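@channel anyone free to eyeball this complex?
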Amino acid sequence: MSPTNLLLGSSPFTHGSGSIAQIMQTVIWALMPATAMAILIFGWPALLVIVLTTAASMVTEVLFLKLRKRPSALGDGSAFLTGLLLALTLPPQAPWWLCVTGGFFAILVAKQVYGGLGYNLFNPALIARVFLLISFPVQMTTWPAVNPLFGEQAYSLSESVAIIATGHQRTPELVDAVSTATPLGQYRTETGLGKTVQEALGGSYGFNTLKAAEGWIKGSLGETSALLLFLGGLYLIRKKIITWHIPVTMLLGCLLPATLFWAYDAAHYPDPLFHLVTGGLVLGAFFMATDMVTSPVSIKGQIIFGLGCGLLTYLIRTWSGYPEGVSFAVVIMNATVPLIDQYTRPTAYGHVK
Amino acid sequence: MPKRFYVPMFQHIGEPCRPCVVVGQKVLKGEEVGRAEGRISAATHAPTSGTVVSIEEHVIGHPSYLTVPTVVIDPDGQDQWADSVRGLVNPLSVSPSVIQEKIRAAGVVGLGGAVFPAAVKMSPPKDKPVKLLLINGSECEPYLTCDSQLMVERAQEIVAGIDIMMYTLPTNQCVIVIEDNKPDSIRAMSQAVQPFPKMRVQAVPTRYPQGARQNLIESITGQEVPSGTLEADMGILIHNVATTFAIYEAVVLGRPLISRVVTVSGRGIVRPANVQCLIGTPVQDVIAHCGGLNPGVRQLILGGPLMGRAIKTMEVPVVKRTSGILALLQEEIVERPEGPCIRCGRCVQVCPIRLIPCEIAWRAKSDQMDRMAEVHLMDCMECGCCTYTCPSNIPLVHYFRHAKSVILADRLAQDKLRQDKARIQAKEARMEREKAEKDRQKEAMKAASAARKSAAETGKGALSEAVQQGGLPKS
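replying in thread with the prediction:
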């Protein structure tokens, strides 16, 4: 009489269509333009770095889920995303072992050891970057010159493999090959030697804000095109994967003090646009700090978290021993998330604060 | 008309009612078959005329196959009303207590889903006068349209019912709240309330769970109901439109609550419709009336898809709370295994009570029942928004129900412990008292015998005096 095989269970019986895999895929798609741009700017070696890092992440994920006797979760795309994010924080010609160690560390130490997806305290990609930066400072701060994929001096594929496998690169005879620093590094080193910001970034270094926004600057793969990363971030907000709160407050947290100090002394503090288009600020604001697992769940908490990330980034960029501070800032703020969550619980309906 | 009706004795909140008919007895339509027990209870009535063939345990719409005592009636086909079914000709001229009695006798309960006896709500205590009557037409669950259809077709009767309610309570202000995706209902009701200056229709945004009491009150008054209190404490009373219609029928026509409008829908139903159903009709007869089931039905639900209950068998009868019968195909259901919480915060953003569902869920999972008060578990109304939005398919509401039941069971056990303790203490106190009493009596006897001795010496008159003073031991 009644149909057989009826589902029971408890209400609700209807669900939204969102899933973890769909979230991860959307984020990966949002990163694609910037990733493609990075490959365009730095050539085949960049592609190899990305492939190696994501592959290492996924292999580690499969291996350790098996060891922990958990069902394979490769399909949710989280390991691929972690690998991709990590690759975007690496130098364009990172040697193969750096990529593999990073991917392995990100998944094993930063994620599986905590209990896997959802249980990690720190952003896996960033904690792996911080680990690499502290352990291998030379390799992590070797910045090859911009060498576009289809440029005259572009690396051939075999050349690229050799670079990543051996770590030795051919020095291309490019115009800006004289300088080896990223814009942030250049600004810190030179102003540290007593120059003004204009002297440090102008002249032979020839910093150009618009060029930098497009991505034609030195730095990690994901520190290049602020513009495309920004568009990817807007896409994520439009797709309702993230809300505007963390990115906007993180940008504000960094750019507001930048504006204040620049207005106070433009000779020693670069303008806020410089801070916006260089380094990993946009990548951090839209893709790193917004990592759901490691950011607060309430809107109020997200605002505090975002402001903290931005402010710490500015502090580290301006006064610490490192030229760039996004990864440190986000990782430090990750540690405060349980505390923020505890104190930003929304007042429940019908309760008085 | 189905071949057989199953009228459960427990279709409301409060005490179940007691069957007041015997097997073999002939009953008329609207005749009482279950008598209300206690103040918070509601009578049930025969949906048609016929013979009581059995009083047995029968399944009701509960996923656990729960059974309750049920009066089974075979209709005689006459559908003849009982003589007792008589309405008030002019309800606004009788005493409110007569109306309250009519509502009570008709077994009207809240048809929005709470199934709380309406007569109790219609008799507010003197110290809590009703300042505002809200008529809930915000039928917010997807699929369900029974209330909205009722407002379109029976606007006059509903408004007449409101008029009676406002007279009975009494109260001076009534707002009929309808979601703005039901323009037909809004139009019909707005027309019907025109002659009544104290009533007005207000459209509210279509946003689940708009019809929940908390959201309804916030939408209309801008105030929140303080946690742990009732809207009645704020001078607000909420009745569903279908309840209002049932009150109209009970008072004006004298008809008890023996039928209601049920939305029969879902892609598994051949001809989805809103059906006027007699209480006690088996679900399979209702579905047959709507053309039967399409192949591939995966889930049967009584009520809405967000707060209803899944059933396993179509033998369960339509009861007073049954607002919908949904037959869902595979494509209407998301069947995915539960994944890990990725703290995306969507549940936090959608919770109408502003709770942190993900946090409550992990506390429930890790059995931290003693720390539930700080996250306000008991304020959860189980609307299902969090589970709906969860990308990891975590059955959050299910965890909350479990945690609530554990806490309630614990509270009951604590209460029992306290009662036991009080009883033991009372017993000890009583024994103490009795011992003291005995001691006193022994003393008295001693005194009496001493007196007797001396009386033997001094004469008989003194003895009776001593007995009167000390009293004789009873045991």
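from a first look: The interface with chain B takes residues 1-3, 5-20, 22-23, 76, 116-119, 243, 292-299, 302, 341, 345-352 of chain A (CB under 8 Å).
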